[in-house]
Amino acid sequence: MSIAANRRSPLLQTFLGAFLILWLMVAAFPFLWTLWGSFKVEGDFFSKADWSNAIFGTLTEVETGAPFTLDGYYGAWVQEEFWRAALNTLIVVVSVVVISLTFGTLGGYALSRSPYRYAFWLLIIALMFRAMPPITLVSGYLLPFFQWNLWGHLPTTIIVLVAINQPFTLWMLTAFFRNIPKDLDESAMVDGCSQFQAFRHVIIPVMWPGVITTGLFSFLLAYNDFAVTAMLLSKENQTMVPKIASFLGTTQTKGNVMFAVASVVSVTAPLFVLVLFFQRQIVSGLTAGAVKG
Amino acid sequence: MAEIHLRNVSKRWGSFVGVKSFDLEIADAEFLVLLGPSGCGKTTTMRMIAGLEDLTEGEIRIGDKVVNDLTPKDRDVAMVFQSYGLYPTMTVYENIRFPLKVRKVPQVQHDEMVMRAAEMVELTDFLHRKPAALSGGQRQRVALARAIVRKPTVFLMDEPLSNLDAKLRVSTRAQIKNLHHELRTTTIYVTHDQIEAMTLADRVVVMNKGEVQQVGTPIDIYDNPANTFVAGFIGSPAMNLMEGTMTGGVFEGRNVRIPGFDGVRDGAVIVGFRAEDAALAETGEIAAPVYSMELLGDSSMATVQAGGTLVAIKAAKDFSAEIGAPVAASVPAAICHLFDPATGLRIAKGAA
Ligand SMILES: Nc1ncnc2c1ncn2[C@@H]1O[C@H](COP(=O)(O)OP(=O)(O)OP(=O)(O)O)[C@@H](O)[C@H]1O
Ligand SMILES: [Mg+2]
């Protein structure tokens, strides 16, 4: 890597560096702006008089006595009980990831090792379901859910999210498993494993980066979902994303927009931590070659 | 300890025949070598015995159990894979130990057994590396150690030495032989190295295109090849096979005339002899110009054209002749083997 980089001309080097910095700024700006603004009052962040108020916090100083305030966070987390939504999100996300990874690894392994044609058709059908917009599924579910009194509860949402997510996990994991040579299963079985033990002791350890990567994608799907959670959850069971939307929806009361901004920052922060924490697995999972022996 | 019976074992993929009605009884404690050119079905046969490949037809028995429907783990075999099949996430030590762990060998014995196997294949310096950080030969030795770490009913070894250098190959070969002598475990060993086959085997099975050509002791196969394929495959150089016709007990072909085949039927025939059985002479049954000369070290090899093919004759190491110079070789009927050109099968001398 470093050898190849050294061979580039200094001009190209400078250009590439400048481009990267520019690109980084453009990409990071909205987030940084929101992060900064979340510590201001609404009058500053959405200032009609002077946009630079959002930077210097003129009104924030007038209203609270300091250039930064935690009012937005306090309002969202304590007053509006955003922590409940965070807890619900945690429950939904963990359940969705665990369930879809469990079925995904077992099913993906079976499909990748199956010599029969039906494996292929199963995957094609899964792909078709994946291609549909989630809302088409939800609108179909809505009426029966009301009638059977299933609407509004977390488990219902979890099941629907798993159903939407499963085809994708299955596809991704099958692809990962196909990359693992069959010799590994076979030598494990001759060494004394049942097929399941071979899967458990030999294949899964090799698959780990793939499982992490797929798990992360499932996580993001559940974490970011709006369509399903907004439609299927009652107000007291709301997860974070629809909760933010509801902050925005009630602009009559001043400060709610700032609650939304503060909770947007709260929602984004864990993603950074997550990606930083798993970055090695993600990279090696995406460059599937690392899976091979 | 067990004998293995293969009864009419066949493997087909669609219309492609991988192994064709394989019939064999392997005695307890026997060392059997499967020998044949690439793609002849050696690995397939072995995989069927291990339980990794379903049989299209036939029956396999290990001991007195029919194992057709048993999973690999219930057949109690240990196998060295041609492609190693090492576990990439485990260290060499853990790789070798894995069979002990899954087969619930008491924990206290593990270390000693692993170390013994590792020493046998000279791996003790690499025990804490992952397979990715090993050379091909080292990986192969890990695969071998993993197989010999416990005492199975049957050893299956698929070209376990193919990636070792010459020196290590000789010493590991000796170790395998010694190991077999010590453990008396029935062993099936695949190779396409004849020297390995000859030195290790109690019996050799020569295969070609999925079919068994001959089963016999190494000497037997060398001295009495059952057909032209075996004759042309075994030995280095392989047997010279000349085409010609037999008339009244005299074989004649281009540049060759060998009398003395009394009682052999007239007609087209293939005559074979080994390079080391013939000798250059003033006059002889073969007379032809030298085609090429090769120095082998302990001897040299003269090649001439005779009977529609190139024929090699062993000569003393100080023998030299210009290419094109006439030479003669004595090839008495006594050293010759006869084959039927239509079927390739051996014709017994004196009879028929
Ligand atoms: N799954 C399969 N489907 C179709 N044909 C196969 C399959 N596996 C093996 N074969 C064919 O069966 C034949 C025998 O293969 P096998 O691996 O037993 O050869 P081999 O004698 O071990 O050769 P080598 O010495 O090169 O390892 C080959 O021609 C191969 O192409
Ligand atoms: Mg093979």
Task: Provide key terms for this protein.
heterodimer; A: 293 residues; mainly alpha; MetI-like fold; 15 helices; 0% strand; globular; B: 352 residues; alpha+beta; Rossmann fold; OB fold (Dihydrolipoamide Acetyltransferase, E2P); 2 domains; 6-stranded mixed β-sheet; 6-stranded antiparallel β-sheet; 9 helices; 25% helix; elongated; binds adenosine-5'-triphosphate; binds magnesium ion
Notes on the protein architecture:
The complex is a heterodimer of chains A (about 290) and B (about 350). Chain A has one domain (about 75-290): MetI-like fold (Orthogonal Bundle). Chain A is about 80% helix and about 0% strand. Chain A has 15 helices and no strands. Chain A has helices at about 1-5, 10-35, 40-45, 55, 60-65, 70-80, 80-115, 120-130, 135-145, 155-180, 180-190, 195-225, 225-230, 240-250, 255-285. Chain A is an all-alpha fold and about 290 residues long. Chain B is α+β, with helices and mostly antiparallel strands and about 350 residues long. Chain B folds into two domains: about 5-230, P-loop containing nucleotide triphosphate hydrolases (Rossmann fold, 3-Layer(aba) Sandwich); about 235-345, Beta Barrel (OB fold (Dihydrolipoamide Acetyltransferase, E2P)), CATH 2.40.50.140. Chain B is built from nine helices and 21 strands. Chain B has a six-stranded mixed beta sheet, with helices on both faces. In chain B, strands 13-12-11-14-20-21 form a six-stranded antiparallel beta sheet. In chain B, strand 4 (about 55-60) and strand 5 form a beta hairpin. In chain B, helix 3 (about 90-100) packs across helix 4 (about 105-120), helix 3 (about 90-100) runs parallel beside helix 5 (about 135-150) and helix 4 (about 105-120) packs across helix 5. The mean pLDDT of chain B is about 90. The structure holds adenosine-5'-triphosphate and magnesium ion (MG). Magnesium ion binds near residues 42, 43 and 82 of chain B.
